[in-house]
Amino acid sequence: MAQGEREARRRGGPGSERSPWFATPPPLRAVRRWGVAEWRRWLVHLAVLIAGLALFALGLVLSLQSNLGANSWTVFHDGLARRTPLTIGQASQLVGFLMIAASWLVGVRPGVGTVLNMYLVGLFMDVILAHDWVPLAQAYPARVAMLLASVAVLGLATGIYIRAGFGAGPRDSFNLALVAVTRRSVGTVRWLVEGSAVVIGIVLGGDFGVGTILATLLMGPAVDIGFRLTGLAPTGTPRRAVDRQQDEPAPIIDEVETASD
User: Which end of the chain has fewer CB within 10 Å, C or N?
Assistant: First the structure.
């Protein structure tokens, strides 16, 4: 590589374009003007999003199968599944759909990431559980190890699917909608919504335990590590602007916001 090109890449000038993996996805509103490069770039980001959501579902199943208590929202979904004909994945999808609808009514429109998060996380959870790929932990050391693995996987998965750049999930969108309606802070709204979900989940018989509390305490540091591993700043913004455009923060989405759902 010539010295001038290397210098341009370092400074971000002409010739500094990087791999589509590190770029933000092209906006769908301009889809009619997309060429091959834009479609390739969008599909790369879509693949990253799906991989992140699959990994996220695995993390939720690990928390459920740790036998120490599930992730906060999973407590609610598990309780709902125990009281209805729904699977836990279908319960997650139903709750996500209702949150998307409620959010849309107050002006928070869903994006591609919102809809795919709602559908795919529940689908992947059901597939993993149906094939018994993650057996229920029995021995106490195995239970602790599975809980810690759940936290680590969820932290990494969060970084991956936020890095894809498709925006907020259904629960985050719902929190934003409630903030707009109630004029309360995001932290207060999140605490009230997720606290209510856990309490209702316990009443319904969901898998609550000491692991639920520990996972909540550990999730924030895990997400921070996941962000660093995937090149995100603490706000969820890519650390480098690769298209010579201004990067927009990508909200932390879904269950991981509990400690960072």
Answer: N
Q: In whole angstroms, what is the distance from residue 73 CA to residue 194 CA? A: 7
Of 172, 167, 221, 214, the C-alpha closest to 194 is 172
3-state secondary structure of 24: coil
Q: How confident is the model at residue 150 (pLDDT cuts 50, 70, 90)?
A: very high
Q: Which residues of 83-213 form beta strands (DSSP E)?
A: none
Which residue, 66, 104, 55, 98, is CA-closest to 80? 98
Write down the pTM of the prediction. Answer: 0.81
Q: How far is CA 214 from the centre of its chain?
A: 19
User: What contacts 106, CB < 8 A, 6 or more positions away?
Assistant: 177, 180, 181
Task: Identify whether the C-beta of residue 191 lies closer than 8 Å to the C-beta of residue 259.
Answer: no
Tell me the residue type at 257.
E
pLDDT for residue 23: 61
pLDDT of 200-214, one tens digit each?
Answer: 999 999 999 999 999
Give the C-alpha separation, 222 to 215, whole Å: 10
Cα–Cα distance between 218 and 151 in angstroms, integer? Answer: 7
Please compute Rg for the chain using Cα positions: 19
Q: What are phi and psi of 128, to 5 degrees?
A: -60, -45
End-to-end CA distance of the chain: 44
